[in-house]
Amino acid sequence: MNSQVAIVQCKSYNPDLVLEAVRKAVDLIGGITHYIQPKSKVLVKPNLLMAKEPEWGIDTHPAVVRAVVKILKEIDCQIYLGDGPSVWGSQAENVDKVYEKSGMRQVADGENIELVKFDKKRWRKNFPLSTWLDDCDYLVSLPKFKTHDLMTLTGAIKNLFGLVSDTYKTELHKKYFRAEDFARMLVDIYQEARPALTVIDGITAMEGDGPGTSGKLRNPGLLFAGSDGVALDSILALIMGLKPLDILSTREAAQRGMGIADINKIEILGVGLKDIIEAPFKLPGTSIYKKIPRPVLEIAKNLIRFYPRIHHGNCTRCQVCIWICPQKVMSIKNNRVAIDYSGCISCFCCQEVCPASAIKVKKSVLAKIIGL
To answer: What is the DSSP letter of 244?
Structure first.
C-alpha cells in the first residue's frame, strides 16, 4: 500500500498564510477528521530543543503550532501542548523559559489550551515516556526540518525522542552512542508512540552542523503533512540531496515494515518534488554520506572519527556542555572548557545544546587526509 505525503509551499510565517497552508496540506491527505476524531484529547508535540526565539530556526515555529491547534479546535478537541527539551546533567532545562522564548507560551495563552510538562513518566518497553501519551487519545507531531550532527536528519522519527522523560535522554545517548544503535533506539520509540498525524515545519530549515546554534538556516518555504513518518523523512532526505536509506532511522524503520521509503510507492500530493528540489543541503561535518564510496567507507570507517572541539572565541563558559555530557569528560580548566578525549564517545550532545555556537567538529587524521 502506498503512503501519502502532502507538500505545500508557504514562503513566510505570516499566521494567515501558515494557517491556509497547513489546512491545505491536511486536506490533501484526507482532512483532519481522517486522523483525529472530534472531541478527542490530543497531545501536540513540537520540536523544542532550547530556549531560543523563533528567528533562530531551531524550534518549531509558533505560527505552525498555532495553525495546527486552530484546526484541532475546529473539531472540538481538548488540546495539550508540550515537549521535553534537552536535559543538562541532573536537571531539566528550565522548561518555562523554553516555552516563553520559543513562543509556545503565547500560543497556549492565545488559544486557551493547556501547556504541559513531561515531568511524569511510564516505562513503555525500554523507555520512560511521558504519561501524556496515556492521558491523550492522539499524538500530533510537529517536527522542524533540520540536519542533525549524529543522525544527519532530524524529522518525523527523531522528533519523538522528546517524549523520553527527564534526564534519561542523557542515559540513552550514553548507551546508544553509535549512530546505528541510536537509530534503532529512535525507531523503537517511534514504534511505541507513533503519531496519528505529523506536520513538518520546513518553511525555514537548517543545514550544516544542526540541530542547534551551529547550523545554518535556509528557506525551502515548505510544509509537509502525513501519517507515515518513514515516508515523510524519505521526502526530506531527497530534498537534502540524499537517498532515503542514507538516513539510518529511515532505513531501520523501513526494514521493520513501519513505513514506506521507496519513492515509487509514496504518493506526493500538492507540490511535486521536481519543482522544489534545489541545491543539496550542506551536511553536518560529522556526515560522510556522498563523500566517499560505500565500499571504502566500510573498510575505513573505524579510522574515520569526528570529535567535538571548543571554539574558545565563542565560548561563554555557560557550562551547558559540561552538564549535558553523558560521559562527564568536559570540565573547566584554566578558565576554559576542556574535553578529555580518552572518554569522549562523539555523541555531540554538547554541540547540540550549546547556545553560543562554540562547539565545532574535530576530525581524525584519516578523515583529514581523504578530504572529509
So the answer is: G
Distance in angstroms (rounded) separating the CA atoms of residues 133 and 370: 47
Distance separating alpha carbons of residues 136 and 32, to the nearest angstrom: 17
166 has pLDDT over 90: no
CB atoms within 10 A of CB 79: 21
Question: What average pLDDT does range 191-211 have in this prediction?
Answer: 97
Query: What residues pair up with 92 in beta bridges, in sequence order?
Result: 87
Q: Where are the alpha helices (DSSP H) in the chain?
A: 15-28, 62-73, 95-102, 104-111, 132-135, 168-175, 179-192, 229-240, 248-255, 294-300, 320-324, 349-353, 365-369
Cell output for 77:
478537541
Alpha carbon distance, N-terminus to C-terminus of the chain: 40
Q: What distance in Å separates the CA atoms of residue 327 and residue 69, rounded to the nearest whole number?
A: 39
Q: Which residues have CB under 8 Å from 316's CB, separation 6+? A: 355, 356, 358
Amino acid identity for residue 320 in this structure: V
Give the global pTM: 0.92
Residue range 95-118, pLDDT digits in tens: 999 999 999 999 999 999 999 999
Copy the grid coordinates of residue 301.
Answer: 570507517
Query: Domains along the chain?
Result: 3-275 (3.40.50.11440), 294-369 (3.30.70.20)
73 burial level (CB within 10 Å; 0-12, 13-18, 19+): middle
215 within 8 A of 147, measured Cβ to Cβ? yes
Angstrom distance (rounded) from CA 62 to CA 70: 12
Confidence of residue 306 (pLDDT cuts 50, 70, 90): confident
- C-alpha separations of 208 from 35, 41, 149, 214 in Å: 34, 37, 8, 8
What backbone phi and psi angles, to 5 degrees, belong to 130? -55, 135
Q: Please give the grid coordinates belonging to residue 146.
A: 533540520
Count of alpha carbons within 13 Å of 249, Cβ hemisphere only? Answer: 30
Give the pLDDT score at 293: 56
Predicted confidence at residue 90, as pLDDT, reads: 43
**Count of CB atoms situated within 10 Å of the CB of 34:** 12
Bridge pairing between strands 41-46 and 138-142: parallel
Cβ atoms of 234 and 260 closer than 8 Å: yes
